[in-house]
User: What shape does this take?
Amino acid sequence: MFAYIVRRLAQSVVVLFIVLVFTFTLPYFEPHGILAPAYVVLGTKASPANVHTWGVQHGMYHPYIVRLWNYIVQVVWHRNLGFSYKQNLSVWGIISLYVPRTVWLALTALVLTFIIAVPLGIFQANKRNTVFDYTATGSAFVLYAIPSFLLCLLVLQVFSFGIVHLPASPPSGVAPWAIFTDPVGFILPVGTLTLLSVALISRFMRGTVLEVLVQDYIRTARAKGCSNRRVLFAHAFRNALGPIVTILGLSIPALFGGALIIESVFNYAGLGIETVNAATYLDSPTVLGITLLVSIFTLLGNLIADILLGVVNPRIRLQGEQ
Assistant: This one.
């Protein structure tokens, strides 16, 4: 198991290095290239001579490899995601207030997704080709196909401005524990983000359980007199859980992407609103810093999913050791 974790950790480090190179290189393709911040800082005084002087002072004319090495050292060892010349603040200083709020939103939706989607998929597989199965499948297809912003608007119309009068937005402020002190205000954003994920996970769970139920060991268990409940939860569930663990890990980018839209619609001060604001005002360092941070969360989620997959299905880690 230790060797399996080390291999997965090494793969994550390689992917992180590629992401670091990508985020560092993107500013070279901006208008004015890496000297674009000089025009923001200098404003009307951005003459060629002043821009050149600013570039020399900030090391913009150093070789690419030297700047890349300095960038990696700053990110890895000093947790410095860059500097926003638009706001005259460090990128981490800007987004550190919003990170806990978005993380709690995404984690809460992820936990609820697992609690709802896994039993729903198992029940659909057990009741396949019934009215319940067809209804759940149709609902999943609708939720999966509907755009995130449209679902947010429909939820607001029905549950805030219509039949039910739930708060249209969470409480103001950036306290990370606000989701616990005032949970009613988070029902709509968390519920909407959960709905977007349940549709996909439940479909995968249903298909995986159906594949497991036709295996020989399931027929053997039924022949030995095992009850349907025991067959589902003692035999089929664990073997069907492996792909779902992987899908949950891969769904983390989608959760953060959905959180961006949901935070904007529900006026929730998280990474989503900060990303929209930074993109609107062409604050590239902040956008790239948030991109890098979300990539790190994604890698951590996938690493945890790989480790859990090795725990759930020992054959995965044993095959890699052969």
Remarks:
- The chain has a mean pLDDT of 81.
- The chain has 16 helices and two strands.
- The longest helix spans residues 284-312.
